[in-house]
């Protein structure tokens, strides 16, 4: 797949297009499944100002949005973090979550255990490698799903009441990471209603009702409800790439 994600932000005076390729590897590959490039233009005349590594920007902006959702939606006393998946997004999420939050325990599970072990040995901090997704999830306060799953790998009867889930994988209308029980018995937040209803198999196939966009919570027009079991379905928005690319460009231009 080749995706084109254009966006303009008047507030940031930024115009970008992200080009992203997605190949579903049937076997483990040294080449990432997703690769991306961000083109930053001058919004006054359309001149190309910079070509940026879109894979890095995608990884970091996605994790940053999950962190915002977690800050707003996680239970008051969150001690156990669980990550399902051990790819690029697992690393970027781990990095920012360790920077912003204090968890007493971090667990990881991956279909290929070797990748989970490699992850645990690569990051700065103790990570427990779990032999099953259920083992990783049981008792966790915050759960991050960053897998290539096409059928559910996280089930509602495993999830601790009041936990918060960041569902980042399953970005196609026929793919799932979360089962119907979890989707229907959680308060559901999304980055974009329009995108979620067209692209998220977890939402489309379960028929779960969207409670709010994350932006509505940030603005204060909808409550966060951290006392409830919450799911944030992340699909990504082009404007996130735009803001991130402009931030990187401005920092580079300033010589910092």
UniProtKB/TrEMBL annotation:
Class in the EC hierarchy, top level: oxidoreductase
InterPro entries documented for this protein: NAD(P)-bd_dom_sf (IPR036291), ODC_Mu_crystall (IPR003462), ODC_N (IPR023401)
Signal peptide: none
BP GO annotations: thyroid hormone metabolic process
A single cellular component GO annotation: cytoplasm
Pfam families for the chain: OCD_Mu_crystall
Highest taxon above the source species: Eukaryota
Gene Ontology molecular functions: pyrroline-2-carboxylate reductase activity; thiomorpholine-carboxylate dehydrogenase activity; thyroid hormone binding
Catalytic activity, EC: 1.5.1.1, 1.5.1.25
Enzymatic reactions: Delta(2)-thiazoline-2-carboxylate + NADPH + 2 H(+) = L-thiazolidine-2-carboxylate + NADP(+); L-proline + NAD(+) = 1-pyrroline-2-carboxylate + NADH + H(+); L-pipecolate + NADP(+) = Delta(1)-piperideine-2-carboxylate + NADPH + H(+); (S)-cystathionine ketimine + NADH + 2 H(+) = (3R,5S)-2,3,5,6,7-pentahydro-1,4-thiazepine-3,5-dicarboxylate + NAD(+)
Family to which the UniProt record says this protein belongs: Belongs to the ornithine cyclodeaminase/mu-crystallin family.
Subunit text: Homodimer. Binds the thyroid hormone triiodothyronine (T3); T3 binding inhibits enzymatic activity.
Protein name, as recorded: Ketimine reductase mu-crystallin
Source lineage: Eukaryota, Metazoa, Chordata, Craniata, Vertebrata
């Amino acid at each position: 797949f080749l995706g084109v994600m254009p966006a303009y932000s008047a507030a940031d005076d930024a115009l970008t297009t992200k080009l992203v390729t997605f190949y579903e590897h049937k076997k483990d590959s040294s080449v990432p499944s997703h690769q991306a490039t961000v083109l930053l233009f001058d919004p006054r005349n359309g001149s190309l100002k910079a070509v940026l590594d879109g894979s890095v920007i995608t990884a970091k902006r996605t994790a940053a949005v999950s962190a915002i959702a977690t800050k707003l939606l996680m239970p008051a006393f969150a001690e156990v973090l669980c990550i399902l998946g051990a790819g690029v997004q697992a690393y970027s999420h781990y990095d920012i979550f360790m920077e912003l939050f204090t968890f007493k325990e971090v667990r990881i599970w991956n279909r290929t255990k070797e990748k989970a072990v490699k992850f645990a040995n690569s990051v700065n901090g103790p990570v427990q490698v779990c032999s099953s997704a259920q083992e990783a999830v049981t008792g966790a306060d915050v759960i991050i799903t960053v897998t290539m799953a096409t059928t559910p790998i996280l089930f509602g009867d495993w999830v601790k009441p009041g936990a918060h889930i960041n569902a980042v994988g399953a970005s196609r209308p026929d793919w799932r990471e979360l089962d119907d029980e979890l989707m229907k018995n959680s308060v559901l937040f999304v980055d974009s209603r329009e995108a979620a209803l067209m692209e998220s198999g977890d939402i489309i196939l379960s028929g779960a009702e969207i409670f709010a966009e994350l932006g509505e919570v940030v603005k204060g027009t909808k409550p966060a409800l951290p006392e409830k079991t919450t799911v944030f379905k992340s699909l990504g928005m082009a404007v996130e790439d735009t803001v991130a690319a402009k931030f990187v460009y401005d920092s580079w231009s300033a010589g910092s």
